[in-house]
Design goal:
Butyryl-Coa Dehydrogenase, subunit A, domain 1, 4-stranded mixed sheet, about 375 residues, alpha+beta, Butyryl-CoA Dehydrogenase, subunit A, domain 3, 3 domains, Butyryl-CoA Dehydrogenase, subunit A, domain 2, 4-stranded antiparallel sheet, globular
Length: about 375
């Protein structure tokens, strides 16, 4: 019904990366991922294998000459398999903060994160609808030898299973970023789950002490560091949304070819072909926006608007693909046992995380002057 889209001008190393990722992930059946989701855990051994392939902190490792386009290529493949492992939380958010801050005291921690030896996550958001460093949910107050932090941080991925949490807290001078080990005094983690049953916890800090040697980045650079890594994570989330949309679309096409009514495949009905064609076009447009945002990610002035447009476009396309997959599968599409449900739930979760499309459209409006100037 549809020819596979061809990605042009893709560097050879990126094609190899995608091919290797697809081959490695193909060995993990969706049934295993579904069973793991029911436990609300992730597979640490599989996570370490991904680290051995160089997938964690791939832009931040000491070997690295990789860019945002390579990150997008990898996470697009990860999205096709709806993996629960915290590649985004530990390998992009936490590792990204350490790398962007450039604090030599945390170089060893960064290497551990990239090697999969430890798992960390980022806690910064205080309420729904927060999309930048100005909306940190915790406040830090200067004390002798460090800071004391109070606040409730929500939507923290895999916090209860992490070895450490990178915390962002607002101050009168800016945003301070710190490293707090799991089980630290005055820090309570309440594990919860998202729509797709991956963990999104609430972290409560009640006078938690952050000593000076645990400060990753001081308030003079903290906000800028946090914003750029949040945007990088949004780019990776957008790639996973596109990958999930492509996978659920292929699943839907397969069903349209196989399911028969009145002696012929239901995909022969022109009305359903129109729906499938519209989905194909929307996913390809999202792919194009994603590639553009990755290519120009280092353009600081227009980065926010491009990433916002990318997250919005990819989220809308993936959500439409998920909704239509349910409709085109008919009654079976509504069942928990159907693999479509895995993708629908993951797409719903990723669509909302780090800013829903409507919030990013507002962000584009505020960023238009910078985007016009860059053009």
């Amino acid at each position: 019904m549809f020819a596979k889209a061809v990605t042009t001008h893709e560097p050879e190393h990126r094609r190899i990366l995608r091919a290797n990722a697809a081959e490695f992930l193909a060995a993990r059946p969706l049934a295993d991922i579904r069973a793991l989701a029911e436990t609300r855990m992730f597979d640490r051994e599989f996570f370490r294998k991904m680290a051995e392939l160089g997938w964690l902190g791939m832009m931040f490792s000491s070997e690295g000459e990789l860019d945002a386009g390579d990150l997008v290529a990898l996470h697009r493949e990860l999205g096709r398999k709806v993996l629960p492992e915290p590649v985004l939380a530990s390998g992009v958010l936490a590792a990204g903060i350490l790398a962007e801050a450039g604090n030599p005291a945390f170089a060893a921690r960064l290497e551990q994160l990239c090697a999969g030896e430890i798992v960390a996550t980022l806690a910064w958001q205080g309420k729904g609808g927060a999309i930048d460093a100005e909306h940190c949910g915790a406040r830090a107050r200067r004390i002798v030898g460090g800071w004391t932090i109070d606040g409730t941080l929500r939507f923290v991925p895999w916090a209860s299973q992490a070895d450490a949490i990178v915390v962002a807290a607002g101050t009168s001078e800016g945003v301070v970023l710190g490293w707090i080990p799991a089980g630290a005094p005055s820090m309570t983690v309440h594990a919860g789950t998202g729509v797709d049953k991956t963990e999104f916890a609430t972290v409560i800090l009640d006078g938690a002490v952050l000593t000076d040697d645990a400060v990753i980045c001081g308030p003079e650079r903290g906000a800028g560091c946090l914003d750029i890594i949040l945007d990088l994570a949004r780019l990776a989330v957008s790639a996973e949304l596109v990958g999930a949309a492509e996978a659920v679309f292929e699943m839907t096409l397969g069903y349209l070819r196989e399911r028969k009514q009145f002696g012929r495949p239901i995909g022969a009905n022109q009305a359903l072909q129109f729906v499938a064609t519209d989905l194909f076009v929307r996913i390809e447009l999202a792919n194009s926006v994603l590639a553009s945002a990755a290519r120009f990610f280092s353009d600081g002035e227009a980065r926010a608007a491009r990433v916002a447009g990318c997250k919005s476009r990819c989220g809308d396309a993936a959500f439409l693909a998920a909704r239509q997959a349910i409709q085109l599968h008919g009654a079976i599409g509504y069942t928990h046992e159907c693999d479509v449900s895995l993708y629908v739930k993951r797409i719903m979760q990723l669509n909302a995380w780090l800013g829903a499309p409507v919030l990013h459209r507002q962000r584009i409006r505020h960023s238009l002057p910078a985007l016009q100037q860059a053009a």
